[in-house]
């Protein structure tokens, strides 16, 4: 029996059962698209100022790959502060330094040091070639509902298809669609972070651990997208670890709204596989600053952590973030044919810690220059790819390293 037919039949039977249980309409499988497209998936972008103000060609070595793809995806891990009111952010606030820290009655969102950026950062990423973005992450609500609306407006103004936030939870959960070369891509985006569920849940699509209603809502969105699109991406900004459950008894809730679980990594894996079983074509995770290995689950990419595309953190010290490994990244170029990923090529990235020029600048100027990715070369490229190979092997995935690139063939 043809394996694709078996999988389609299994998905249809699963959808029938779920629609009966949840009173949802039965999804219909779309005809397979004939076109082949290229999809670039980048790590999360945390950029606090339009890089063109300082660099002649920021991300220059990546531009051809990103702009040459039919679709390029990233996570926008900032909140747009619109002029002139900046969502109530004080004029003296400096985003690179996170200073002065905002007291609870001063801060417009959920943090004392919001990642508040001008709309030009969105325009820069769109100009680079990113046409598809998740807006769901632990910084989505840094400027409250005002920032959520301003970020969505900036994405729409620059032609970026986006998902993950909205004026209400239904809009935030709803799939977004982008059609290229006759192929429709659906995106469902969510966050699983350490922010208070009751504070942001109304406008940021979240999946808090132990909350079955969050999982059911997102799986329903995946099934909806699978019925409407040829290829479905589920994005999860997964930034949570076991330490957050310290001192919380089994069955109880944490301060931020999660329900106690004894295996955080296992929970992510189980949820990601449920997402793929529900009809998603691939699962992408960001949040932790380092990349993880790649699993191929039932012929579909399951990427728990892809690391970063840009990381402009608050601490100007060299070595401060070493334990998180934020300076090594990956850029994934995917060939999508007839609704399936058939090939993945992974390019190693150097996110530029800035050691060679740290002494030349004060803290503010230094932080504004570091953390933008370029293609890694030499020994660094080799070490990144060898680490990716070893991490992927833990998930049973074999990859081939050729010319300082890693290749995974998935053709069924």
Molecular structure report:
This protein has 412 residues and is an alpha/beta fold. It has a single domain, classed as Purple Acid Phosphatase, chain A, domain 2 (4-Layer Sandwich). The chain has ten helices and 19 strands. The protein has helices spanning 3-22, 63-68, 119-128, 144-157, 169-173, 197-200, 212-228, 264-277, 363-369, 378-393, and strands at 36-42, 44-46, 71-75, 79-80, 116-117, 132-134, 161-163, 176-180, 183-192, 231-238, 282-287, 294-297, 300-303, 308-311, 328-337, 340-350, 374-375, 400-402, 405-409. The strands form four sheets. Strands 1, 3, 6, 7, 15, 16, 17, 18 and 19 form a nine-stranded mixed sheet that branches. Strands 8-9-10-11-13-12 form a six-stranded mixed sheet. Helix 3 (119-128) runs parallel beside helix 4 (144-157). It is globular and about 55 Å long.
Provide a compact summary of the structure:
The chain has helices spanning 3-22, 63-68, 119-128, 144-157, 169-173, 197-200, 212-228, 264-277, 363-369, 378-393; strands at 36-42, 44-46, 71-75, 79-80, 116-117, 132-134, 161-163, 176-180, 183-192, 231-238, 282-287, 294-297, 300-303, 308-311, 328-337, 340-350, 374-375, 400-402, 405-409.
**CATH homologous group name:** Metallo-dependent phosphatases
Task: Name the structural class.
Answer: alpha/beta
| Text of the CATH class | Alpha Beta
Q: Which CATH-level-2 architecture?
A: 4-Layer Sandwich
Quick check: average pLDDT?
A: 92
Q: First CA to last CA: what distance? A: 13 Å
Q: What is the number of helices?
A: 10
**Approximate helicity band:** 25-40%
Shape call? globular
CATH fold call: Purple Acid Phosphatase, chain A, domain 2
Q: Order of SSEs, N→C?
A: HEEHEEEHEHEHEEHHEHEEEEEEHEHEE
Strand content: 15-25%
Largest sheet: 9 strands, mixed
The whole-angstrom Rg is: 21 Å
């Amino acid at each position: 029996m043809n394996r694709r037919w078996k999988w389609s039949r299994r998905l249809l039977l699963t959808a029938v059962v779920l629609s009966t249980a949840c009173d949802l309409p039965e999804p219909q499988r779309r005809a397979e698209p004939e076109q082949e497209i290229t999809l670039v998936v980048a790590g999360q972008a945390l950029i606090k100022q339009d890089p063109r103000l300082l660099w002649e060609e920021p991300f220059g070595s990546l531009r051809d790959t990103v702009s040459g793809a039919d679709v390029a995806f990233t996570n926008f891990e900032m909140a747009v502060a619109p002029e002139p009111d900046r969502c109530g952010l004080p004029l003296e606030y400096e985003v690179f330094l996170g200073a002065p820290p905002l007291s609870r009655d001063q801060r417009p969102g959920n943090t004392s040091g919001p990642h508040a950026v001008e709309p030009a950062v969105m325009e820069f990423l769109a100009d680079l070639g990113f046409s598809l973005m998740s807006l769901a992450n632990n910084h989505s609500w840094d400027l409250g509902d005002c920032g959520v609306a301003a970020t969505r407006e900036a994405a729409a103004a620059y032609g970026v298809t986006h998902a993950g936030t909205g004026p209400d939870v239904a809009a935030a959960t709803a799939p977004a669609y982008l059609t290229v070369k006759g192929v429709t891509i659906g995106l469902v985006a969510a966050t699983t972070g350490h922010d208070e569920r009751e504070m942001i849940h109304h406008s940021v699509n979240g999946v808090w651990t132990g909350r079955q209603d969050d999982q059911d809502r997102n799986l329903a969105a995946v099934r909806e997208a699978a019925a409407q699109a040829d290829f479905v991406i589920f994005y999860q900004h997964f930034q949570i670890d076991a330490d957050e459950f310290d001192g919380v008894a089994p069955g109880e809730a944490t301060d931020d709204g999660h329900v106690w679980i004894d295996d955080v990594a296992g929970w992510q894996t189980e949820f990601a596989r449920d997402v793929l079983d529900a009809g998603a074509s691939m699962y992408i995770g960001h949040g932790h600053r380092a990349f993880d290995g790649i699993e191929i689950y039932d012929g579909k990419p399951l990427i728990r952590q892809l690391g970063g595309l840009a990381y402009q953190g608050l601490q100007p010290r060299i070595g401060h973030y070493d334990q998180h490994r934020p300076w090594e990244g990956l850029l994934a170029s995917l060939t999508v044919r007839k609704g399936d990923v058939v090939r993945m090529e992974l390019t190693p990235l150097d996110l530029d810690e800035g050691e060679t020029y740290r002494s030349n600048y004060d803290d503010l100027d230094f932080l504004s220059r570091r953390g933008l990715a370029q293609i890694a070369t030499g020994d660094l490229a080799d070490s990144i790819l060898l680490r990716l190979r070893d991490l992927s092997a833990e998930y049973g995935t074999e990859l081939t390293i050729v010319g300082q690139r890693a290749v995974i063939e998935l053709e069924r």
